[in-house]
Amino acid sequence: MKKQISIIGCGWLGFPLAEFLVASDYKIKGSTTSKNKLQTLNQSAIESFLITINEKGIAGNHYDLLSGSDIAIINIPPGLRKNPNKNHVVEIEHLIKAIEAHNIKYVIYISSTSVFKDKNNFPLIDGKTQPNATSNTAKQLIAIEELLKKSNLNTTILRFGGLFDEQRHPANYLSGKKNIPNPNAPINLIHKKDCINIISLILKKEIYNVSLNAVNPKHPQKKAYYTNYCKQHHLELPEFNYDEISKGKTIESSQLENLLNYTFKQAL
What is the full per-residue pLDDT of the chain (268 aa) written as tens digits? Predict the structure, then answer.
């Protein structure tokens, strides 16, 4: 019998992940907040559901979305840049309760390396480093991670660095910008295909109850990397601000590489 997975959040990462897992012989249910995307998901053999989550609860047929699934993948961006006053922790708390009510035992939660603080000595962040960032987004992500650890769910917390692919690259946003901070900081990026491969391996190897950092092992300097990328792709060059000391961090993913026997495949 095929394993059934519910993917909560079939967006930029979640949709191609769902397609990949369907091709890998999983039965996939997926949620979207866009009515227009339902047909697209269904055409890819993803049973689709229109679901929105807010501080009051879950709107939509989340009962059928979660019913019968062995595993849930939570892939919901916090959305705190657009709405900094919302309580994303409460939103995910509603979702955790719903997952527990459906007797789903295994969860993969997509978190972020932003839970680690940037410092001017660019500290090395490894598998033993505890989250310590103090931004609004970081504090809420840390609180959600703790909620999941204390729940009845066997949860793998997957902290991705900056996500990109050929169409969506941070250099496209930085091109032509001025006064960009932290020019000397190391970058911490990961290609979308590596993200999908890593999630697939976690499912295949059944790696749960662990927190993993997932970042490409190469960490070139921010200014050098984005300047070279823009030159190679004929984009307007960005300009950086050296008036303040650069802050950053170096995220190390050897724990993940060793546990999954994984080699990052996509170049920066």
Answer: 689 999 999 999 999 999 999 999 999 999 999 999 999 999 999 999 999 999 999 999 999 999 999 999 999 999 888 889 999 999 999 999 999 999 999 999 999 999 999 999 999 999 999 999 999 999 999 999 999 999 999 999 999 999 999 999 999 999 999 999 999 999 999 999 999 999 999 999 999 999 999 999 999 999 999 999 999 999 999 999 999 999 999 999 999 999 999 999 999 9
Q: Which structure tokens are listed for 37?
A: 């995307």
Which two tokens mark 127?
A: 């598998």
Alpha helices in the chain (DSSP H): 14-23, 38-43, 62-66, 88-101, 136-150, 170-174, 192-205, 222-232, 254-260
Sign of CA dihedral 108, 113, 116, 122: positive
CA distances from 82 to 55, 77, 78, 137, 236 (A): 15, 11, 9, 11, 27
At position 23, the amino acid (one-letter code) is A
Cβ neighbours of residue 99 closer than 8 Å, sequence gap 6 or more: 66, 72, 107, 153
Question: Is the full-model pTM beyond 0.90?
Answer: yes
